[in-house]
Each structure stands twice: as structure tokens, then as C-alpha cells.
Amino acid sequence: MMLAHQISVGNELLLGDTINTNASWISQRLSEHGIRCVHVATVPDDKPAILSALAHSMRDADVTILTGGLGPTHDDITKTCLCEYFNARLVCHKPTLDRIQRMFEARGIPFSPSNTAQADVPEHCDVLFNSQGTAPGMWFAEKGKVLIVLPGVPREMKHLMTDEVLPRLRAMVGASKLNKDYLQLTGIGESTLSDLVIGDVSSYLKPGIELAYLPHAHGITLRITSFNGLVEDAARLKSHILSAAGPYVYSELPDVDLEQVVVQLASEKKVSIATAESCTGGWISNLITNVPGSSTMFKGSIVAYHNSVKQHLLDVPESVLMEYGAVSKQVALIMAKSAASKLGADIGISTTGIAGPDGGTEAKPVGLVWIGFWSRDTHFAVYARFFRDRILNKERTAKVALEIIRRQMLGIPGLPFDLKPESA
Amino acid sequence: MMLAHQISVGNELLLGDTINTNASWISQRLSEHGIRCVHVATVPDDKPAILSALAHSMRDADVTILTGGLGPTHDDITKTCLCEYFNARLVCHKPTLDRIQRMFEARGIPFSPSNTAQADVPEHCDVLFNSQGTAPGMWFAEKGKVLIVLPGVPREMKHLMTDEVLPRLRAMVGASKLNKDYLQLTGIGESTLSDLVIGDVSSYLKPGIELAYLPHAHGITLRITSFNGLVEDAARLKSHILSAAGPYVYSELPDVDLEQVVVQLASEKKVSIATAESCTGGWISNLITNVPGSSTMFKGSIVAYHNSVKQHLLDVPESVLMEYGAVSKQVALIMAKSAASKLGADIGISTTGIAGPDGGTEAKPVGLVWIGFWSRDTHFAVYARFFRDRILNKERTAKVALEIIRRQMLGIPGLPFDLKPESA
Question: Are strands B298-304 and B273-277 parallel, antiparallel or unpaired?
Fold first, then answer.
């Protein structure tokens, strides 16, 4: 098996201001490709430290991935160290320089000498063209070993890893021998899912087949891994889970979000959606509009944070606000209906709740949320009890709202977390 | 200055399943005590790897902190490695054993041999009593060097660091000697800031004073660190930066977001804000409502994703949409004004742009955004050119919009990124 080392360069990592998330992301990608990362050295922007880490990794690892220290300021010295290590000089990479110049011109930003230096790379390296930033990636091959150098900005690093580095590494190690199947679920807790819904799966497991529960803020991802021709056994396990927990599964792909599923379904079914948000403050609308193509099915949102907006733009009568309060079934139902009618959508969804951390009462504690749903055929509201954390409450509320929409569009009976629908 | 190394032990760290947050937390605590962490090695639960990292760190560092591999399962081999490294044998630490036994009794859990082994430590070490878990911490002193071994569970590690390790380290190094000053800036690029605005600061720097540029997605954080009574020199550097780049500085605290500053300013000045968002899709509204207390100054938002919503809820005439298009100065200006009037706010801010990744034309490419601002005294719109990335375009647009509001509320002349205001 091919062994990899990582070198993470940056004073900010050693002062603790920045958490080294790059290292774990890279490790995950490597392990998916059958390459095992066995060492991560985090070193400062300091020449002896970088050179010593390079020597160590180039001796012990087949592949070394170094990130960071490629920026335009005086403390970025990774390229200087590479020149010394390889006894090379810096040369200008013309396509990168052209791109940087065009970028600056297009935005009308003055071009300074440190920007020119961004396009310099040590001679003899393969340049990995960075279409997301100014610092090019580099690929060095020496005596059967490979050194890959990437910018430390996570977005740029991920782009270069995905588009440039992993395809080359795949070609080096041959086809991956590990198969992974994913099921993404929402609207159910981990222990309920494993104990009551999926149940005992030991008869499906054997050496070479694993089932992992990966709970995260917005649901649970199940990962089935299978090695070396156990694909059919993995398929049997997957089919068992699908028949037991099907209604909760919103995707069989690892990287698809619930909002993507909702946008795709609504586009296919030509259903338009609008939201009226109080406690979520635009978060649902934001999630939906993060999805490319959402403009075909999403009309928009009225974020009615202040009660006057609920009255004037969503036609919630003052008397209803007075009698039931803004966080109530009655207000949620009117908001959902008005979202659909005012914004001209087939489905209206609404949220109103106590986001926290303050503002709760005994009758309406922090974390209490009403979610309203309106379509021509159905309308109801549900309440849920979430947490003391404001951001978490927004996220959970949005995911439940999106899951309600998904189930309604597909005609799946029941609601996430077994919430009970209430009508007016 | 005392130099520290860290060794993080654990396969899960190298598979990428667990992000190494311990390392940055420990680094921060060390730097606050004037101890500089200059190396973090992340190694697997593997004897040669642990022994090699130990040898390296005990040679180069004054203080080494090793975390992880102290659990009760077969893959936890840190103590075995320590015995081999120090040529010591394991002895039972009676107070720890008593505590574990009491703990198990109290919870009615059966006591197994692997639990007894938890109380074993290499002879000659000082035991750091762990009141939060079963694995004791250890303190080894050898030839003027110190090795500290802690469990990898973050809660237990933090407890032992805070209650046991840091008081001892403080006694070794004397009172805390490191000061950190932060300046958070937005609305300017890193190279423009460093080359053209702040300029050469070498006359302010000397051993013990450092200036670091920490660029991130939403701006740049400048960190000035100063050691050993160089506080006045640091203040001179900070004052130079403030006088050169003052308008860009939105906070002098490291953890404050721009939206928090906007909410606080608006609350103090009793200014209410509303948004009309197209390309940002509710992201600005979401950022503002993430801040506790935003309900006092934020009225809400109309997310006008579909043009019909721009017409019916924001009074953008169809003729204007036809003549200039939805992504135009004219539409941005009307949207901003309608946001304020329809939602009853003092300030209205609007966004309309081509978020991407598709939908651009030659005249209106992906990444083109118009931002409108309306208050009783001033109204204008600006356009910016951002990226091909949809999410990034939303984030950048929102930050520019928030920064425009901040500058307007404070009466700071000029706009972020030197954008030029255009009127109707």
C-alpha cells in the first residue's frame, strides 16, 4: 500500500488560531483512494523547519502533500524552501501570470510586484493550474517519490486536489479496490434508527463488509464499505436498510444535500415553492438558493422578523397575533398560506419560533418552533422542540421544513420525527 | 523562549475522521503562556512511529505534549511506548484505581481487567490526576526536558491542561509574557493592504514583535504579537496600521463578525434595517438574524428570487425590468427603496446579480452583482465583479453589503474595495 505524509506549513496553525482542517480532508481523500496517510507534520513558516520536514517525508513516504506558505506576503517562504531543497531557481509560469493580470484588470485592482511573484514556480515542476486563486499548485517527481505542493486556502486546496491531484494519484495506484455505498437519512434519531428501524444487521456483516453510522447536524449518513468482490453482499445489506428505513432516505449519494433533492424534485414536478420565515431568518431561502437551478422553482421568501411585517406583508391579523402570539399554530398557518399566495407559489412553508438564547417563557420556551405547510390540497402546522442554541435551532427547523416538503411532493405518509400535523 | 512540540497519537486523526482540534487548543494555551509550539506531529497508534516522534521531540523541544492512545482498547499503546522509551515498567497508581472502581460501582457497570490497566502508569512519572475520566495524565522530567502525556478526549485533555499542566508550566516560565492584538479588516485585498495601504512596517518590527496577515473568506485579520514588555512597541505598530487602514477596520476583537458589528451599531443608533435580496437569496438576512438581539433593529427581508416578486412586492415596474434587466442599477435602487418602505425600515439594502455557475452573458457575466443602498439622506447603487462560484458570490456580496451599511452608519467616506456609488 502506498504511504503518504503531509506537511502543513503555517504559523497560524501552530499558534492555534487556525484549526488544521486541511489535513483531515486530505487524509480522507487519500484513504478513499487506497493511500494511507501515516504522518502529518505541522511546521512554522521557517526555512530549517520546512526543509527538515521535507527531508523526513521524502525519505519515508511515497507521496508527500505539502500545503501552505504560498501567499504573496513576506512570511510565505515555501517556494524559497523548495528551490533550496531541489537546487532549482524560480521561473515565471506565464499562464498563471496572465490569469492573475486578467483577474486584477477585470476588477480594477492595482497590480503590485508581490502579485507577479505569485506566478513564479521552481523550475522542473509540473504546474497544477489553480483556477480559484492566485497561487499555482506544484507536482514534483524525484526518484520514484512524489511531492505535491498546494495553497493552504481550503477552497483552493480542495479544487486542486479534486481536479488535478486525485486523478493523477488514481492513475498511479490503479483503480480503487474499496467500494462505498451511502444512504443519507433525515427526520429520525440515531438510536431509534439503529435499534428500532434497521435492527440487527449482524447476519449481513462479514470480514470485508462494514456498516458505519455517521450522524451529523442534519441527519445520519450510513456508509457501507465492501472490499474485493463483496459487492453483492453489500447490495443485500443496502436493500435491507432501504426496505426498513426507506421513507427517511433522501439520497443515495454522499454529497447531496436535502435542499438539492427538494430543488430537483420541485423542478421535475414543476412545483413552485415560497417561504415565509420568522425564526429561521432567511436560512431556508438561502439553502434553496444555494442550489444552481433553483430559480426555476423558487419564487422567494418574506422574512417577517418584525411582527409589523407579519401583519402588513403576510396578512396576519393583529387580533391573531394578540390572541395566540407570534409563535403559534394559527400564525404559522396564515404565514404559509400567504407565502404561497403573495409570492405566487404552489407550496408555501413558514416558520415561527423562539430561536434563543433568550426570549423564552414557561409556556413558550426557547427552542419551540411552529412550521406551517400550505398547498392547494393540504395545509397543516407542526410544532417541534429544539435547543437553546440559536444557530442550531435555525438549522434544525430548516431541515425539518425541507423534509416536510420532500415527503409531501413524493406522497410519503407521515412526517419527520413522527411530528403530528395540526389543522386550523 | 521555551519551545514546545506536540505529538498527536491516533489512527482516527490520520484517516481524517477526526479533526485535530486538540492541537490548536493546546497551541493557543501555550502561546498565551509565552511558550511557542513549533512542531505538531500526528502519528498513528504504531510503536515505531510513536518512538520516533518521541525521540525527535525530546531532542528538539523543551516541552513535549503528547495526547492520545491512553484508552482501554488493544490499539492504545502509548503507555507501552513510554515504558520502552524510558526503560521503565508499569506500576499501579492506587488513587486512580480507587477512583475508577468507585465510578464503576456507582454506575453498576462490571469491572474488567482492561479497566484495572487504565490505572497503570510508567514508574518515575508524576501522575496528573484525571477527575473527568479513567486515563491519568503523566508528567516526565528528564535532563531539563519535560514530557507531558494526556488523554486524547478533548474534555479530559482540557481539564488536565487547565488544572494541572498550565499551573506547572506557568511556574516554570514565570508570568505570562505574550500579548496579542487583533485588527479585523474587510473591503480590501491582502496585497493592496500590505503593499499600498500599510506599506513597509519593518521599522516597527524587531525580535519579539510580529505582524501576521490572516486572510479568510470574509476579510483579513491582522495579528500583532509581542513578547517581554514590548507592549509599547506593539501599540506603535497598531497605531500605524489604524492610521493607514482605519476605515477598513471593523473590529479589534478576534472573534467578532461583521454582522455583529452592524447589529450592535444599528441597535445603539436606533436605526432599523431591511433587505431586498435576489442573488443573495436570504443570506444577508440570515447573517443578521444569527446575531442575538437582532430583532430590535432588523425588520425582515423580501427575497425576490423570481421577477414577479420584484414586481409585485417590491414595485419594480415591468418596463424597468424589460429595459434594463433584473441585474441593473435601476432595479437595485428601486429594490433598496422598497425594502425600506415596504418593511418600514430606516435603511434598505438590495442585491441583484448573476450568482452562477450559469446564466451569464457577455454584457452581464457570472459574478456581476449590483448592490443598492437607500436611506432618507442617501441612495446609490454599486456594482462589483465576483467569481464563478455561486456560494462565494453570495458570501462576498453579503459582506460588501454589510460593510456598506457599517460605513454609512459611521459616516466613513468611501466604499469597500473602492467601489464607486452611482445614482439613478
Answer: parallel
